[in-house]
């Protein structure tokens, strides 16, 4: 199905959070204010790498209007945070490792006073050698950034004997690929409001992708029980993985508890760039060999990932990249080795695609290079190597079987973009006959198999609760967060379609640790699948209980009743008992709860996935030879992710993911020099605008799953963003005959000397 | 010397009384002359629909209409607002949703929604001057508004619907 409003019919619904968003009424957590509120600010390191000799705060404390100045001495509990490895200091005490490192925080009456007071904090440093290159940091004599060494994580996967088999290869492609330090660039920067309540509890209004995880971490830092902290974490103005780690929360919480006043923090964009997470820059070296039929038989990979000063999810991202450098291909002899390395650069962390983007760019580049050597169509070469139904996953693990890889391959082959195969053979000479001979076009394609969920060996709980509330609303209570992806809309649509409720009957409650059960995090393309599975599990009990309650009120047997909009219906006739009547007739509310885990592979290989989404993409590009600029004129995405739970959300996720990938491919790089960001704001960090995205995008959704499949819709939050770069690189090669191995594509690498008329030169020379 | 006809107030503290219309309401407030309109709106008069994002005029999240023209509230100083009529996102829907907002709602021209107020303002500003813009004119008018979520597909469909309805 080509996914659009027309093909979706009545399933194209207005989002329940839409009215408040388009009217500007929606209060994000950074919009909140309360009387008597102070503003919080954080002092960050002046240096990329230095020992701290002393910190003097007394001058700042003397400024009228300053209510607190906190340093490491004021952290009652653990002076560290991090989802996987809580070693990023809340406040540095003896050493700074990057310029985003926090040293002190201030609460003041207003921004001006806070700013001035910040300037009065004196820190004495002793400079330490800078490590801004992961390969330098791996050397034996490099200064240690952390006691355990500069390698945060090392992955190794091996099967067969690649070095032996390379000798039998007819063709071998060897290349090194570089990917950029991409920035999430959520439009709402980090921030929130922190309120010490009269009853001694602390309320945290601040964005996150997992409120319960924030609560655990804040409890450790503040040394107060989790129950004394309430985290309210939606709505969020974008995250894309970037707000999953704590950011302003420790400072807001500490300042609020110290001053006993509400404190608001809201990062400026420049502060957000400096302190916030980025996508891991990776250098991926690959050697890939095939036989004379194009069967890939050997594949060797080395990944160097720059994780920056602290771990966050650097190890997990590297695990993901290690799994995805083999992709949806059957390769008998493989060796992958990866290193996530600490440096004094900005901290890298979780970002939509989670290391898949980098891996897939490199892998698909290899396939194209081999196809060129074999002189066959690169798309055909993919078919010859594609995994088949029944094959194990990339790490040799059991996976939920679908025919997704072939489905997307075939659908793309039949697309207009690929069908215009003759267009793929148009030579540059033919383009020269156009009116604008400096514009050349090309078509390219790529394929991806992208894992969802956290993977084997990482706790990945899910669950939720349904309740008939006292006022007659059907409450769906889940521990997820809405950061724009349309989770609330998808949940509403599932409740309507799976259960038969009307939109007005439903109240969705998320993002409040005081009331939600643990549903796991809203990451890793997992939430839609988990909501669907939870509602499936809750269905028999919840509907039976509602119908029984209605039956006992109406004296009609449950076989004569059904769930419908507005209440319980007498089969096809009319509403017999409204939900509010039902609620009033109850002595105890009707509540059903479920708890389960995200499905994982039984193979004990940490991080290996079980559920995958498949996608293929074809793009058509124009390359301007004078400027070297690439413009994407057409994109065709085929996505095999099971049933479309919410057409508007699905289309939006693919279109939006693709736009993020356009940035990754063509313009986005948070450039650092000697550990300092040269790109500090959106004047030099170039996110695609509407002009950059003015090409045509079509999305085809393949919904079939095998009859026995019980897992329902697969995640689509990341799949739109992972394979555009290699498709564009392939199209650029088709257009200009130059191979791209570094992102974002450097225009100067594609520029050609303008055509100079001979005559003019002769006259000049004469 | 500050121009007394435009500015009154405590000149020593570099403040003045800003007199302007905001969403049709007369506002008179004492602010530093160089205070940005963004802060005046969000903090002083608590209209949080105008969003803070890049604060250097590149993303358009803080767009408002000044005398009908879209401006970045982060680049507009309070003194520049004297005697003008400012319309924020809140002002567009005081009597029901504006047709542009309605189009965004129906077409799903938003996801996280943080860029939406600025985006809507830019579209309203454009259609106010040119009710039947070409595709290129729409793209140019919206090139100062960054949306990180939608890939602009939904936004373009919403704008086209709004144009269709205007016609």
UniProtKB/TrEMBL annotation, chain A:
Pfam families reported in the protein's UniProt record: Ald_Xan_dh_C, MoCoBD_1, MoCoBD_2
Any one GO MF annotation of this record: oxidoreductase activity
Entries under InterPro entries matching the protein: Ald_Oxase/Xan_DH_a/b, Ald_Oxase/Xan_DH_a/b_sf, Ald_Oxase/xanthine_DH-like, AldOxase/xan_DH_MoCoBD1, AldOxase/xan_DH_MoCoBD2, AldOxase/xan_DH_Mopterin-bd_sf, Xanthine_dehydrogenase_dsu
Domain Aldehyde oxidase/xanthine dehydrogenase a/b hammerhead: 23-129
Name of this protein: Xanthine dehydrogenase subunit D
TrEMBL record, chain B:
InterPro entries: 2Fe-2S-bd, 2Fe-2S-bd_dom_sf, 2Fe-2S_ferredoxin-like_sf, 2Fe-2S_ferredoxin-type, 2Fe2S_fd_BS, Beta-grasp_dom_sf, Diverse_Oxidoreductases
Entry coiled-coil feature ranges: none
SUPFAM superfamilies named in the record: 2Fe-2S ferredoxin-like, CO dehydrogenase ISP C-domain like
PANTHER family named in the record: OXIDOREDUCTASE WITH IRON-SULFUR SUBUNIT, XANTHINE DEHYDROGENASE SUBUNIT E-RELATED
Full protein name: Xanthine dehydrogenase subunit E
Domain 2Fe-2S ferredoxin-type: 16-92
Gene3D superfamilies per the UniProt record, alphabetical: 3.10.20.30, [2Fe-2S]-binding domain
Keyword Metal-binding: yes
UniProt keyword annotations, A-Z: 2Fe-2S, Iron, Iron-sulfur, Metal-binding, Oxidoreductase
GO molecular function: 2 iron, 2 sulfur cluster binding; metal ion binding; oxidoreductase activity
Keyword Metal-binding belongs to the record: yes
Xref: PROSITE patterns: 2FE2S_FER_1 (PS00197), 2FE2S_FER_2 (PS51085)
Record-linked Pfam families: Fer2, Fer2_2
């Amino acid at each position: 199905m080509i996914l659009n409003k027309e093909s979706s019919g009545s399933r194209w619904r207005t989002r329940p959070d839409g009215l408040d968003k388009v009217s500007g009424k929606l209060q994000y957590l950074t919009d909140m204010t309360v009387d008597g509120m102070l503003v919080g600010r954080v002092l960050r390191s002046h240096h990329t790498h230095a020992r701290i000799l002393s910190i003097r705060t007394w001058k700042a404390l003397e400024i009228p209007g300053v209510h607190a100045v906190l340093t490491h001495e004021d952290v009652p509990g653990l002076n560290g945070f991090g989802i996987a490895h809580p070693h990023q200091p809340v406040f540095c005490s003896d050493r700074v490792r990057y310029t985003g490192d926090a040293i002190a925080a201030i609460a003041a009456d207003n921004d001006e006073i806070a700013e001035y007071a910040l300037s009065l904090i004196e820190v004495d440093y002793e400079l330490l050698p800078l490590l801004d290159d992961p390969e330098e940091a791996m050397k034996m004599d490099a200064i240690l950034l952390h006691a355990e060494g500069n390698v945060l994580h090392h992955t190794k996967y091996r099967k067969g004997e690649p070095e032996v088999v390379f000798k039998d290869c007819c063709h071998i492609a060897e290349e090194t690929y570089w990917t950029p330090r991409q920035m999430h660039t959520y439009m709402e920067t980090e921030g929130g409001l922190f309120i010490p309540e009269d009853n001694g509890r602390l309320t945290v209004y601040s964005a996150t992708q997992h409120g319960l995880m924030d609560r655990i971490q804040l409890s450790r830092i503040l040394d107060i029980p989790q129950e004394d902290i309430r985290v309210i974490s939606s709505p969020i103005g974008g995250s894309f993985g970037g707000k999953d780690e704590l950011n302003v929360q420790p400072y807001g919480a500490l300042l609020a508890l110290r001053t006993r006043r509400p404190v608001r923090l809201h990062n400026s964009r420049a502060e957000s760039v400096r302190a916030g997470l980025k996508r891991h820059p990776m250098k991926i070296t690959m050697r890939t060999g095939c036989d004379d039929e194009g069967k890939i038989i050997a594949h060797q990979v080395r990944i160097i990932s720059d994780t920056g000063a602290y771990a966050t999810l650097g190890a997990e991202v590297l695990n993901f990249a290690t799994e995805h450098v083999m992709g949806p291909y059957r390769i008998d002899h493989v060796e992958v080795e990866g290193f996530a390395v600490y440096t004094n650069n900005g901290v890298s962390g979780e970002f939509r695609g989670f290391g898949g983007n980098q891996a897939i760019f490199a892998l698909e580049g290899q396939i194209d290079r081999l196809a060129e050597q074999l002189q066959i169509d690169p798309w055909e070469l993919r078919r010859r190597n594609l995994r088949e139904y029944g094959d194990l996953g990339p790490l040799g693990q059991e996976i939920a079987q679908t025919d997704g890889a072939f489905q997307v391959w075939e659908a793309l082959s039949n697309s207009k973009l690929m069908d215009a195969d003759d267009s793929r053979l148009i030579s540059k000479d033919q383009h020269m006959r156009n009116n604008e001979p400096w514009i050349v076009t090309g078509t390219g394609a790529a394929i991806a198999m992208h894992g969802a969920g956290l993977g084997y060996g990482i706790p990945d709980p899910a669950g939720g609760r349904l309740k008939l509330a006292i006022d007659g609303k059907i409450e769906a209570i889940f521990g997820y967060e809405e950061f724009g992806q349309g989770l609330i809309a998808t949940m509403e649509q599932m409740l309507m379609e799976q259960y038969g409720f009307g939109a007005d009957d439903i109240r969705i409650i998320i993002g409040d640790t005081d009331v939600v059960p643990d549903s796991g995090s809203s990451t890793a393309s997992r939430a839609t699948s988990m909501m669907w599975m939870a509602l499936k599990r809750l269905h028999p009990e919840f509907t039976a209980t509602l119908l029984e309650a209605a039956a006992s009120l109406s004296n009609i047997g449950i076989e004569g009743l059904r769930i419908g909009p507005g209440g319980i219906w007498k089969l096809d006739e009319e509403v017999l008992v409204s939900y509010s009547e039902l609620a009033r007739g109850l002595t105890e509310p009707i509540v059903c709860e479920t708890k389960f885990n995200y499905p994982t592979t039984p193979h004990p290989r940490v991080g290996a996935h079980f559920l995958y989404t498949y996608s293929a993409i074809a793009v058509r590009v124009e390359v301007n030879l004078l400027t070297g600029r690439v413009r994407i004129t057409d994109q065709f995405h085929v996505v095999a992710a099971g049933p479309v739970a919410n057409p508007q959300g699905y289309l939006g996720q693919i279109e939006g993911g693709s736009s993020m990938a356009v940035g990754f491919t063509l313009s986005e790089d948070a450039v650092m020099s000697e550990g300092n960001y040269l790109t500090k704001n959106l004047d030099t960090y170039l996110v695609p605008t509407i002009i950059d995205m003015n090409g045509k995008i079509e999305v085809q959704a393949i919904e079939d799953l095998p009859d026995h499949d019980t897992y329902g819709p697969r995640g689509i939050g990341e799949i739109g963003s992972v394979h555009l770069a290699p498709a564009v690189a392939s199209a650029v090669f088709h257009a200009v005959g130059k191979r791209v191995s570094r992102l974002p594509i450097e225009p100067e690498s594609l520029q050609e000397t303008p055509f100079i008329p001979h005559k003019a030169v002769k006259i000049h020379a004469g | 010397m500050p121009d007394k006809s435009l500015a009154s107030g405590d000149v020593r503290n570099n403040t003045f009384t800003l007199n302007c219309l905001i969403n049709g309401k007369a506002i008179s407030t004492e602010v530093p002359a160089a205070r940005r309109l963004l802060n005046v709106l969000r903090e002083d008069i608590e209209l949080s629909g105008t969003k803070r994002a890049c604060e250097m005029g590149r993303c358009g999240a803080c767009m408002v209409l000044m005398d009908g023209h879209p401006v970045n509230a982060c680049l507009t100083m309070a003194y520049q607002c004297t005697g003008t009529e400012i319309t924020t996102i809140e002002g567009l829907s005081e009597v029901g949703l504006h047709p542009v907002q309605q189009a965004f709602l129906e077409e799903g021209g938003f996801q996280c929604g943080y860029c939406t107020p600025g985006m809507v303002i830019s579209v309203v500003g454009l259609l106010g001057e040119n009710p039947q813009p070409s595709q290129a004119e729409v793209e140019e008018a919206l090139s100062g508004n960054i949306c990180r979520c939608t890939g602009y597909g939904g936004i373009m469909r919403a704008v086209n619907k709004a144009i269709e309805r205007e016609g």
